């Protein structure tokens, strides 16, 4: 009686034991797990933290670290990142300039504080100018 045993389950079957069934549907979420042979690198979902607003949109003109170029930063809005991006897109379009969202602040190129104030007030924010 010569059989070709290619795996451990075949060997267990030869001795009359039932092969072990692995259930892959019951996966445990372990925060310390970095790599798994089943799924590769584990990407943990990070919860977005939104800082609460004090009721004012703080508009500030900055030039520090930008080689003298003026940038208007808007902070204190208390919005999630998706809504910040849509608001930044609207501000960039009305100002006719570039800009970006960094963390919880919106940066708009140039000195367009008055135009930004009008747009933010139409969106329902109270605007406070900070700095000179």
From TrEMBL:
One annotated GO molecular function is: translation initiation factor activity
Question: Does the keyword GTP-binding feature in the UniProt annotation?
Answer: no
**What InterPro entries does its record include?**
DENR/SUI1_TIF (IPR050318), SUI1 (IPR001950), SUI1_arc_bac (IPR005872), SUI1_dom_sf (IPR036877)
UniProt keyword annotations, A-Z: Protein biosynthesis, Translation regulation
The record lists the membrane-crossing segments as: none
Give all residue intervals belonging to the SUI1 domain. Answer: 61-124
GO BP terms in the entry = formation of translation preinitiation complex; regulation of translation; translation reinitiation
Q: Which family does it belong to?
A: Belongs to the SUI1 family.
The identity of this protein, by name, is Stress response translation initiation inhibitor YciH
Which organism does this sequence originate in?
A: Litorilituus sediminis
């Amino acid at each position: 009686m010569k059989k070709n045993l290619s795996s451990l389950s075949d060997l267990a079957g030869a001795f009359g034991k039932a092969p072990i069934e692995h259930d892959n549907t019951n996966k445990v979420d372990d925060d310390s797990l970095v790599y798994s042979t089943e799924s590769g690198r584990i990407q943990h979902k990070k919860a977005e933290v939104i800082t609460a607003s004090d009721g004012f949109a703080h508009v500030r003109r900055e030039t520090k670290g930008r080689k003298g170029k003026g940038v208007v930063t808007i902070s204190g809005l208390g919005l999630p990142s998706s809504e910040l991006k849509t608001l930044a897109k609207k501000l960039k379009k009305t100002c006719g300039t570039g800009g970006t969202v960094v963390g919880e602040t919106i940066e708009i190129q140039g000195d367009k504080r008055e135009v930004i104030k009008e747009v933010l007030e139409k969106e329902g924010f109270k605007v406070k100018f900070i700095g000179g």
